[in-house]
Write a structure and sequence with these properties.
The chain has 327 residues and is α+β, with helices and mostly antiparallel strands. The chain contains ten helices and nine strands.
Length: 327
């Protein structure tokens, strides 16, 4: 083989190696792009799922409710049992000492006194252990007794229609926590043993999404402004659903007969040109009427027709200011 042929062969091998390197590089780039695309598709699917879950939650707040409180049962509940001081560990140690019979080797190597001393030390340790367990149980009992006494006292007052006890129960139990987590807040005023006045402060900007998300055929995420009609319909359903949820929660907690619930939100005052907190829905809900509803099937906005209700709503502009129901 001549020098030229050797050089040509080496050059060809180098070109083949270079082409293989380029091919691998291109394949790596292709795989990376495919991976990024797959990640984008999965991210888009997750974003859409979260958006749809959020919308579903806003429209179905009324379908959930806490377990009703049975204040009579609470009032009749037996007090915690006071613990007795038990000497179980000490008795075991004493029994070990009493059952000890020195062996031949114990006697031979004069270990009897040493072992008896060890048994006595174990009795002391066991006695201290019993004392610690008793004190721990006693401390636990004192806490449980205090809680039992307080809840029993509260239940007796609630059963007697004590308004102050009603307020205390609401503050302690916090039945509106899920609504608060979404961004809205609740204020209340117990008017009598049968009637409560509740104000539901709607935080529109936090509660209602202004954009809607969808996944295109390509797998990419589409984010666009939610159409006004769709936004206002969701807004109405959310407000009405929360009003029903508030009513259900308060009736589950307290032996009330009626709840006056007023939803307020920031609306433009055309006289001043400023946003002001105004009533957008005021409804008087009797417990008997509420209990007849099938919460898994009703449309929350349509359900307001079952009650005395002030609500002015148009799909194109949303809520308008209404007057609070007068009792």
């Amino acid at each position: 083989m001549t020098l030229n042929s050797v050089l040509r062969s080496m050059a060809a091998s180098a070109r083949r190696a270079e082409r293989e390197s380029i091919r691998r590089q291109r394949e790596n780039v292709r795989q990376m792009k495919q991976y990024v695309k797959q990640q984008e598709v999965e991210f888009a699917a997750l974003e859409v799922e979260q958006f749809e879950n959020r919308v579903a939650l806003l429209k179905t707040m009324h379908q959930d409710c806490s377990i009703p409180w049975d204040w009579k049962r609470v009032n009749d509940s037996p007090q915690p049992e006071k613990p007795y001081k038990l000497d179980k560990n000490e008795l075991i140690a004493v029994n070990d000492l009493n059952n000890y019979e020195p062996s031949f080797l114990d006697k031979l190597f004069r270990k009897v006194d040493k072992k008896i001393s060890a048994f006595n030390e174990q009795i002391t340790v066991s006695k201290n252990k019993d004392e610690v367990e008793y004190k721990n149980n006693l401390s636990k009992y004192e806490v449980e007794y205090k809680e039992w006494n307080e809840i029993r006292d509260l239940s007796a007052k609630i059963l007697a229609g004590n308004i102050t006890a009603y307020k205390e129960a609401i503050e302690e139990v916090n039945p509106f926590s899920e609504i608060s987590e979404i961004g809205s807040s609740i204020e209340f005023n117990v008017l009598s043993r049968d009637l409560i006045d509740i104000t539901f402060n709607v935080n529109t900007s936090e509660a209602i999404p202004s954009e809607e998300k969808a996944q295109l055929k390509s797998g990419k995420l589409s984010i666009k402004e939610m159409p006004k009609v769709k936004f206002f319909e969701l807004y109405q359903d959310y407000v009405c659903s929360c009003v029903l949820r508030v009513a259900r929660e308060i009736f589950a907690l307290l032996p009330l007969e009626k709840a006056l619930i007023t939803a307020v939100a920031e609306l433009l005052n055309t006289q001043t040109g400023y946003l002001e907190t105004q009533p957008i829905l005021s409804v008087l809900i009797p417990k008997l009427t509420l209990d007849r509803l099938n919460f898994n099937s009703i449309d929350p906005s349509d359900s307001m027709r079952n009650f005395k209700c002030n609500m002015s709503f148009k799909k194109t502009v949303g809520f308008d200011i209404v007057g609070k129901i007068k009792l």
